[in-house]
Amino acid sequence: MGNKLVLIDGNSIAYRAFFALPLLNNDKGVYTNAVYGFTTMLLKILEEESPDHMLVAFDAGKTTFRHKTYEEYKGGRQKTPPELSEQFPVLQDLLDAFEIKHYQLDQYEADDIIGTLAREAEQRGDEVTVISGDKDLLQLVSERVTVRLTKKGITDVDTYTPASLKEKMEIEPSQIIHLKALMGDSSDNIPGVPGVGEKTAVKLLKQFETLDNLYEDLEAVSGKKLKEKLEANKEEAYMSKELVTIEINAPLQMTLQDTSYSGYEASAVKEQFQNLGFSSLLSRIEGHKEEEVEMISVDVKIEETITEDMLMDETALIVEILEDNYHTSPIEAVVLSNEKGVFAFSVEQVMESEIFKAWAADSSKHKWVFDAKRTVVAFKRCGIPLEGVTFDVLLASYLVNPAVNNHDIPAISHRLGETGIPSDEEVYGKGAKRGRPEEDVLYEHAGRKALMLYRLKSNLEDQLKQNKQEDLFYNLEMPLTVILGEMEHTGVRVDTDRLKRMGEELEGRLAEIEKRIYEHAGEEFNINSPKQLGPILFEKLGLPALKKTKTGYSTAADVLEQLSDEHEIIDEILLYRQLGKLQSTYIEGLLKVVHKDTGKVHTRFNQALTQTGRLSSTDPNLQNIPIRLEEGRKIRQAFIPSEAGWVIFASDYSQIELRVLAHMSGDEKLIQSFKDGEDIHTKTASEVFGVSPEEVNADMRRQAKAVNFGIVYGISDYGLSQSLGVTRKAAQTYIDAYFKSYPKVKEYMDDTVRQAKEEGFVETLMNRRRYLPDMNSRNFNRRNAAERTAMNTPIQGTAADIIKKAMIDLAERLTQEDLEATMLMQVHDELILEVPEKEVEHLTKVVKEVMEHTVELVVPLEVDHSYGNTWFDAK
DNA sequence: TGCCCCACGC
DNA sequence: GACGTACGTGGGGCAC
């Protein structure tokens, strides 16, 4: 039985990590980002590969034997930044703690050490895995040698075997050096044949297999220019080949035996991690778990009866529910924590206790909770109205930093250094294994959370204050969560019969289309599988493959649309996709979540998720019900009022983001456009194309609309070029023209980016915050994405703030004016209500007033409305 | 179970 | 030059 050997290209991985991660340093001011990235990769490798032999190879310094061949080898390369060089000794210390061998050899590169050991090991029958970021290493791939190259970041890798190499690059491992010989490598200053890139090189190698064959039969090369270039640069090509060939007989002063690896002492690594400030990695150290962390001690009192003295003015309240969906899952426990202690009850106990119910309904008794909406709705289902919820740890944590993806009590506690509290997953299990534990375990866990919540509250309060987010928290998100809870609890009536009829009709049509597709294809296959569809279209039917994905041919709609004229099957597939989507997601999916008892759908709005401040919606997602295509739009016919004589009423902001942009930038022209009530896309078109508004045709308006869309969503020139189907250059000219026409917008964007760079975050009108750690990244792509986010988030986030405030104001007005109308849904810039038909006129006035004046911007906010017997008819 | 591809909304 | 590109949710296929 062979061994399992892992060889790591130390320089390459450290380099990758350094450029992929922001320039972190620890509390001693020592840079650690490369070490950190390297370590995450290392931990992943140890987990995935469980090697019994291991080595990290490093480059040995400036010159190598290759410089004798070619003095300019690696010339012109940027000097290693000192911030990175200083991390190598740290990294080697850490490897020592892991008890992983590392090695370097004078005059040789890490590649050569790896090549030499890999060849020796595979001859011995070992399984070898090579980890690097350098494609040169691919020449080592064989039946026993797998090469894993970092792709994006450090832990995301592509795995290469002979088969996958052939598939991805269309060549054999042995041809890699020939490939490089022809195309060269600018990063190592390897010349290759000038004018020959990867595409040409692959083509040539497909024809000739090797460099020798190519030069023996140069006449067979098609293209005069190419022939000349090859002829003239023969020497360079052969020298390049020599340079990129990895030495497999390097004079190593070590043997394979020396690489044997048998794990590490957890304590040694832990110590290093603590020195480096890698607290988030501590939990990934094996043995770490066994080392019992001292749990927070909690004295949970389980009482027969609930008495007044347990129910104080300020009490942390935990309602424990095992499943995500609180509309359907039962309450497992109710736990209180306050100055009198921690008390646990069953749901039956609280439902029967008049004392508890009176306390719950008393708004002067302040309850602090985690996830107020969940808590209130769950109680409501049990017939217990809950008032006086004044602090939600979830919402507070979200406002303080929306980028954090886990705001639950154990996670927040961990971040504040309190590790003595296990996560829900650790206590209840996950997936199929999740279940209710023994009563005492359940109560103890909920008790710990209640106790921690009580402590966390003041910490979060401080952070809100520091960020000037108290108003946002207490007067926006907290009141809103109550309203959202009511909307969810109310639910939306669904006409299931209608959905079923639509489903039957679709089924028939899908079957017919399916038949026709099979006829066109000449065989039956799974149309829903891109993996099967790709070869049918691009091999069997010989259609041109315009785009590829990581795993094969792209069959995305935008690709297929370009092929529409080439073959009749294309339109059939597009239609099949369109109808199939309606069937699976919107007909079957919706029917699945209609509540048995109420005949309604009860979505859950996630108020603590998006990075911009928008809501999201799940089970079902009511924010992506089709509207664009008529066929899909009919799904909306199944959303109906819950009572006879009522109608669905929809009200949406017109161009809210662009109005926000006008306000925030102060651009006079943009402001005037809105004041004058102009058609904004036509106006933009006339500006961008330099014509009068009357001269703007439909296509110009369409393009201008995409530009406005791009401005609002912060897409790049590339994104705009994709949506317009023009070149990137053309897209960029549109963007430039836009900024030239609206100079204050450009100024505002630049200011926002500058400020984000300085402060590390951007803010909305109501002080919602988003941190942008990549703002100063040296990685071009990351920095660019961060800059676009900086420009976009204040706009989208402010729009989100505004509609949230409108909802609060509207809820209040509906009560004041004694209207029965009820809010049902929010879809980012629109509100959907149900309302008795006789109230429509009154409601129209109120909704318009509230939504248009919930904030006063320098431009008017405009609201359109409509109503009808179904959501479809409210158009 | 987790990832990929695809598709729906704003 | 940078080769990947708003924010979300969900379904089906597929490899493990």
State the share of residues found in helices, binned by percent.
40-55%
Superfamily at the CATH H level of the largest domain? Answer: 5'-nuclease
Number of strands: 25
CATH architecture assignment name of the largest domain: 3-Layer(aba) Sandwich
Average pLDDT figure: 89
Percent of residues in beta strands? 5-15%
Unreliable runs: none
At CATH level 3, the topology of the largest domain is Rossmann fold
Family: Belongs to the DNA polymerase type-A family.
Keywords: DNA damage, DNA repair, DNA replication, DNA-binding, DNA-directed DNA polymerase, Exonuclease, Hydrolase, Nuclease, Nucleotidyltransferase, Transferase
Domain 5'-3' exonuclease: 3-262
GO biological process, one term: double-strand break repair
Description:
There is one protein chain. The model has no long low-confidence stretch (mean pLDDT 89). α8 crosses α9 and α27 packs across α34. The chain is built from 35 helices and 25 strands. With 875 residues, it is an alpha/beta fold. 49% of the residues lie in helices and 13% in strands. It starts with a strand and ends in a 7-residue tail after the last strand. The strands form seven sheets. The protein has a six-stranded mixed beta sheet with strand order 3-2-1-4-5-6. Strands 7-10-9-8-11-12 form a six-stranded mixed beta sheet. It folds into four domains: 251 residues, Rossmann fold, CATH 3.40.50.1010; 166 residues, Nucleotidyltransferase, domain 5 (2-Layer Sandwich); 140 residues, Taq DNA Polymerase, Chain T, domain 4 (Up-down Bundle); 138 residues, 5' to 3' exonuclease, C-terminal subdomain (DNA polymerase, domain 1), CATH 1.10.150.20. The protein binds a DNA duplex (10 and 16 nucleotides) through α23, α25, β18, α30 and α31. Pfam families: 5_3_exonuc, 5_3_exonuc_N, DNA_pol_A, DNA_polI_exo1. It is an enzyme of class 2 (transferase). One of its GO terms (molecular function) is DNA-directed DNA polymerase activity. InterPro entries: 3'-5'_exonuclease_dom, 5-3_exonucl_a-hlix_arch_N, 5-3_exonuclease, 5-3_exonuclease_C_sf, DNA-dir_DNA_pol_A_CS, DNA-dir_DNA_pol_A_palm_dom, DNA/RNA_pol_sf, DNA_polI_exonuclease.
